[in-house]
Amino acid sequence: MSACEFESLEKSLESHLPEAELSEVKRILFGKDTQKFDLPACAVSAAVERDFELKGYRFEAAQEQLRPPRRIRVGLIQNHIVLPTDAPILDQVNAMHSRIGEMVEVAAMCGVNIVCFQETWTMPFGFCTREKEPWTEFAESAEEGNTTRFCQELAKKYNMVVVSPILEREVLHSTLWNTAVVISNSGNVLGKSRKNHIPRIGDFNESTYYMEGDTGHTVFQTQFGNIAVNICYGMNGAEIIFNPSATVGALSEPMWSIEARNAAIANHCFTCAINRVGTEHFKSEFTSGDGKKAHHDFGHFYGSSYVAAPDGSRTPGLSRTRDGLLVVELDLNLNRQISDKWSFKMTGRYSEYAEELTKAVRHDFKPNIVKE
Amino acid sequence: MSACEFESLEKSLESHLPEAELSEVKRILFGKDTQKFDLPACAVSAAVERDFELKGYRFEAAQEQLRPPRRIRVGLIQNHIVLPTDAPILDQVNAMHSRIGEMVEVAAMCGVNIVCFQETWTMPFGFCTREKEPWTEFAESAEEGNTTRFCQELAKKYNMVVVSPILEREVLHSTLWNTAVVISNSGNVLGKSRKNHIPRIGDFNESTYYMEGDTGHTVFQTQFGNIAVNICYGMNGAEIIFNPSATVGALSEPMWSIEARNAAIANHCFTCAINRVGTEHFKSEFTSGDGKKAHHDFGHFYGSSYVAAPDGSRTPGLSRTRDGLLVVELDLNLNRQISDKWSFKMTGRYSEYAEELTKAVRHDFKPNIVKE
């Protein structure tokens, strides 16, 4: 069975394990069982017709006396590119807009308040090729580009916060960035968060295209909760962290299910991990610096988008092979409840960590090593 | 099926999944397949006779041109308490010494170079009870206690580094600590590492007994590699981090398999997660601050000790229910190989993180929150 045929971990476990063992296995792997919730019939049939997976789950929090529940719904979208990678750029972008448009419409039917798309969603993940052309032509202004305008329309039409990760061209300096644009449900651009930690491994040749972000770990206050994008250490009070990604392969997949969960646990917040799906073929062949033959694709983007809760539980993942929309209802009150219960922020030795980390990055750092 | 009957995740998957799916499921859950290695027949039969599980795995690294392999073997021991929790203290400690003694002998047959026992291994995990007596009587001097002397003998006899986590009494100040004593293979006490982040949740009433550690994140240079104990951010060049634990329950178990792996990945090093096993009954009943009835046990310590490699792969876990010795051969060269390949230490924005964390712990900290 090849890695791009295997549909999902959950499906495999559910088809083969006896009931009693299945519940133990799921408990150990995923934490507390996540409840499904009923999706509106119109959304279900639209998803079938438009050929994407649609799943809905709910994380509940306890009822408090002084605060009402703060239930909101997030939508995570994973999808294939629509046209071949050598189609005219505008056609590719328009086809993606139209695909995302029809998926967001279903998200709206499901009552989604905040939607997030995959990393550099308007384009193939061409950064493996190391070719500048035509990939840099996909870059757009975060504030005034066509894609941002398109998202602003969606935001206003559906009263939805839109997190739109694009390849950004900062027109003033003519620089490129890997940027998530955050658009308020009013349609205004609230701000942007640039990818901070750029990988340099295998075919992730992203550092050829853009540099480390300079926007820090900004938190965006929206009507539906304080959100942040990408890796964030939770110190700024984000309630939901979106992590749009584009990742493939044997190295990454076993880490996929643990990293976002670990971040949710460590930071007492919700995390949303989104990966694209499918295999993207490029006209020019490229090498991977591993002594192997040149090839035309980066590997299989394995989808599997999911949401993790501050108690370490998580929803099942979307498919490894199909487009999909994951709708998850969260009660943001769960964050403080878990924080009060586990007290990581209080019991953690952050001052000490800050001091040690500050020392460790100095040029004259001498580690404390005990020898005999 | 109750949580203390379910033997192990791996066993359940292996009994029910068809071959082709099993390999996909294991790849996604555990990363690259870990090789088993042949354990000597005398060790296998001694383990059967002494009624504990014995497993052996190997992580390989690539052959380099300038450095020879640095293969060493670590041993992780998980075990039940031997006598009832109300037996005389000295009898309880002696029974544990003798159980550990016979398990370490098998570790020696397997060529183990560094062995680590479970958290506060000489005693029941009585901290759930909030009774000071008799649990504080189990505390011993890290430098001169009976248990340290016992471990020094083992270290010399078997030419083995011993990591011995005990309840420490610092005689000078009459204070208690949760401390791992690191004993060199020469038999000398190399130093100690005190538990730094003390949980305050549910029945983990440890803060009633001892305070946050004051030993920082020390690294111990041994003949077999640089090691550290407990949570460590890897900045000091530890090659193996031991994490002796005592943990139970629905909250903790789904996190067990992800935290040590995440640390191994983030720090390019090996991590060894060790948990005790069994249910410990206490004579006096205690409450959990959750409105439920008083009870006599803390829950089931689920064992499942394992080793994770810097590439995110991991060994299967030991049993959830049986005593066990896990022997793992590591080539420490893998750490630098993965570091060179993934470059987290170089691409990570540590200076920025240090700066942000330093700001975040100040009293006058104002987070960067963008509003409309």
Description:
Two copies of one chain form a homodimer. With 372 residues, chain A is an alpha/beta fold. Helix content of chain A is 29%, strand content 26%. Chain A has helices at 9-16, 19-30, 41-49, 89-109, 146-158, 249-267, 333-342, 344-347, 350-360, and strands at 35-36, 53-59, 71-78, 114-116, 161-170, 175-183, 189-194, 219-222, 225-229, 240-245, 270-275, 277-286, 295-302, 306-308, 324-331, 369-370. An eight-stranded mixed beta sheet of chain A has the order 1-2-15-3-4-5-6-7, sandwiched between helices. In chain A, a hairpin with a 2-residue loop joins strand 8 and strand 9 (225-229). In chain A, helix 3 runs antiparallel to helix 4 (89-109). The longest helix of chain A is centred in the first third of the chain and has 21 residues, at 89-109. The N and C termini of chain A lie far apart (52 Å). The interface between A and B is large, with 84 and 85 residues. Strand 8 of chain A pairs parallel with strand 16 (369-370) of chain B, so a sheet runs across the interface. Chains A, B: Its EC number is 3.5.1.6. Chains A, B: This is Beta-ureidopropionase. Chains A, B: Belongs to the carbon-nitrogen hydrolase superfamily. BUP family.
Keywords:
homodimer; 372 residues; alpha/beta; five-stranded mixed β-sheet; 16 strands
CATH topology of chain A: Nitrilase/N-carbamoyl-D-aminoacid amidohydrolase
Silhouette of chain A? globular
Per DSSP E runs of 2 or more residues, the count of β-strands of chain A stands at 16
CATH architecture descriptor of chain A: 4-Layer Sandwich
